[in-house]
Fold:
Amino acid sequence: MGSSALVLGGGGPVGGAWMTGVLAGLCDAGAAPTRADVVIATSAGAIFGSRLLAGESAHRLYEGQLAGADRVDLRVGLGQTLRFLWAALGSRDPRRSVQRLGRAALKARTGPESDVFDALRPLLHGVRDWPDHALRITAVDALSGELAAFDADSDVTLLEAVAASCAVPVVWPPVTVAGRRWMDGGSRATANLHLARGHDHVLAIVPISAAVGPHPGAERQAAALADLGAHVTLVTPDHAARRAMGRDLTSDARRPAAARAGHAQATALAASLPALWRADG
Structure:
């Protein structure tokens, strides 16, 4: 059947809730997304991907969102939003755009780096070690704009990799890992589908399909993989899911509805997945 990759994108607390609904809906309908040879995870996807590969079921992730578990206090003010947009949209050149964002992140008056670790440690539900299953967690170097993908061979802890991937620019400080400062893995592309290049089958669950600034969105990256011969299934929020999620992807109150919308969307989608992704395939 060829090699396969599961890509889990970023999307804040609400996007992450929708993602858990999609994963649970697929599994409840007989699919097996974690059969992938590798999981490529960004930001919220890094949190839930780590827990999935550590043995937590997709349904349990979903039930937690419905019950209000995994709450994270991610307050984003108007000033932070404007600074983020000013930096990201200030250049049409992708490299300069992400470097501008990195400079803004490094200069922003935020809390200490320990705040990021303290917020994310409970979200991993006690998972400390890298899973045996191949997992790649993305982060962006705040100085150079370079994208990296941490894995079990990177000489960083799982928590460090997740914290680097989730350090939202100008909201949380870039975190120091392996001697470098890192910011959110979605700072260039919300899901980094291009890292799945070389795999024959790709299932991408992406809460936010469009990148901010002059960077390729999920649809463009999926099309590029398809042009190389990969069979790509890209799942992004449908109309009902977008309404349930709303515009504020940090809203704790939106998480249950977003999770339910993701579950409903995935239930309808599961039957059309290639046999590779089905538990009985």
